[in-house]
Amino acid sequence: MSKFRLFGGGSAQKTLERCRGWAGAVNLAEDGVRALSDAGLRETITRLKQRHRDGEALDDLLPETFAIVREAAVRTLGERPYDEQVIGGAALHLGSVVEMKTGEGKTLTATLPGCLHALTGQGVHILTANDYLAARDAEWMGPVYRFLGLTCAFLPRDGSRAERRPIYGADVVYGAASGFAYDYLRDNLVIAHSDVIQRSLFSAIVDEADLVMVDEAGLLPEISRDSESTSDHARLATLAARLEPGVHYDVDKARRIVSPTERGMALIEDWLGAEVYSGDDVGLAHRVELALRAKELYVKDRDYVIVDGALRVIDASTQRVTDRFIGGGLDQALDAKEGLDVRPERRTLAVIDVHAYLGLYTRLAGMTGVVEGEIDAYRDFYDLGCVAVPPHRPVRRVDHDPVLYVNDDVMLRVMVRTVDEKRAAGRPSLIGTASAETTEQISQALLAKGIGHDVLTAKNHALEAEIIARAGRPGAVTVLTRMAGRGVDIRLTEPEGAGLFVLGIGPLPSRRLELHLRGRAGRGGDPGESAFFFSMDDPGVKVPKFVDRLNETSKDEDPMAGKVIARALKGVLNAISAAETQRSASVLRYSAVREEQRAAVYAKRDDVLSNGVSPDETNRLVEQVMWGYVLAARTGSEDVDKLGTAIRTLYPATLGRDTFAAGLSGGPSSKARTELADVVVRDALAASAARESDLGPDVAAELKRRIMLVAIDRSWQTQLQDLNDAHDGVSLRTMAGGDPFTEYRRAASRLVEKMWGQIAEDFVGYWFNVEVSVEPLDDTDA
User: Fold this and answer.
1) CA 321, CA 317: separation in Å to the nearest integer?
2) Whole-structure pTM over 0.70, yes or no?
């Protein structure tokens, strides 16, 4: 058996040893399984389910289950999972991120742990990057599951709750990661358990793990609705255009922070005629920062495009034009920057990042074509180790060291000539770039020489598949941006030739993406070749120690190559990758604060959804709110009236003004204040008991359950906006010095304490003041 590359030291070694042992056991079971009839295979799956219900561990059931799935794949697909796929499936079962090269059969591999985990009856989710891949894989692998008496379904992005409910009832569900996350959020906005459509989050197997679990870890699936629009985005965009970077504000592109200087802040406040931080408009600082970020950090045709007069976001990882909102007011700031009609602002109802959503699963694993460069991320973000499974057939691809040219014009000329030579020899070529802009430049250069080609800019998943399907034809030329078309193999129509030629142009955002691009060639033991061309015009390549010397000795189209160049260019890629990793880690660091609060809010919400609000909790909340009102009141005649009004607004108090006046005669810690609080609490508890008696126990319980859910949801929505404002606020104040994250965490702690207090106050107010109408059942409803 081929050697395995291990990541994570002893832990990975133990994982590998267990998987090898299981592979041997699966092979031993294969003859007996092969002798079973179709019905016999299904009956065996039924018995395995019962054995698990009786307490037998999945580990013990793995060899027989995998052998059955292997045989089912043979009978339905005509494909027998290789030993390498069995080992990969076992590693997925153990909760690893498994590296299997392009063309090695990750999709089929996932059916092995998919069927094993389905024995529990808790449901298995196989998550991938987009609907196209999920629908394709569900259709492709569905026969295996159904042959064994298991159900398999595809979860589309769109569809009503009623349509999606039965999908979640399937044993195995394929879908885009964001689709599962959206349904989780919607489930946490319902007012009855019967409206929840997701089952328990038991097992998740993530395909294209590097994209979903790393690149999109900080992606924020959110549910939002239009709210009132803020009218000053256009004015602030005009103001931002007049400010100069380095003079009126500083830019930290690595941390995505733009912060006014003292000089800039003075000028901003002078132009606005208002104090940014301490004025009446508490959101002004946030909107100023948005205008500056829109100006400096977001570039047209790189981060967004304008289509039919509307601004649409380009996904940074895939370079796809999406329907997503950036959120937090940035969409409106960008509209204003571009002179478009500013769309209504959106109020976030619920949000969770992909990283946090995946962390909700009891079992989590991933598979990808490349783990190099992200091993630490899998460990730090998900506590998962990595194992690389060797290819079933040896790799025959020839990988050339990267070469450097003096400028873009020279590099493009050499690129066109090289591709034309490959085309003349009947070889297909795949050219990969880091941006849509570079792709367009290459396309124009090819057209100028009369070289026909396909351009893949990741705008339509189904179209991508069609283009990729013909990219392996003799003489075909395909230009793609980033990892457009990933998940779809390029199959050679003439496998006996020299194979696919892959050419990377310029630095990609990570070493991992470079390896992904190279891995497009030589799939499944096919021949292939890969190369990378760099230019001194590329960002980060101008390294003074060697560039000047090479400029002097290089002649026009002569490439600069060798170990020194290779090391230097690798350093460029490593620096870009490190910056991206740092940015991702920073995003998750901040979002972890929000996610900790979300987990607590959703846990409370789920408890209320299931158990309601007990009489003891009701009394505790009433007591808490009344004490808060009394202790916060000031002394003085007007304050006596204010407290009395506030208390009577909150509940039907029977206390007179003299009682409040006597209680406010001393400070917050005085005996008089304490006695007043006790009096108010007793009066409020009596009113609460009367309210419960009037409504009756059943109606009172349902009312309290519903109003608590409303109180939680409204306060959490406000908290999300407050956290967003706090993040932007500390970024503005602390860029010049100090740690923004520490300040943000402190602010978030203060905000969440305030939120829980507001939930209590809203609940008590609703409890006493919501009018209840109980309609009798019609005879036909009985």
Assistant:
1) 11
2) yes
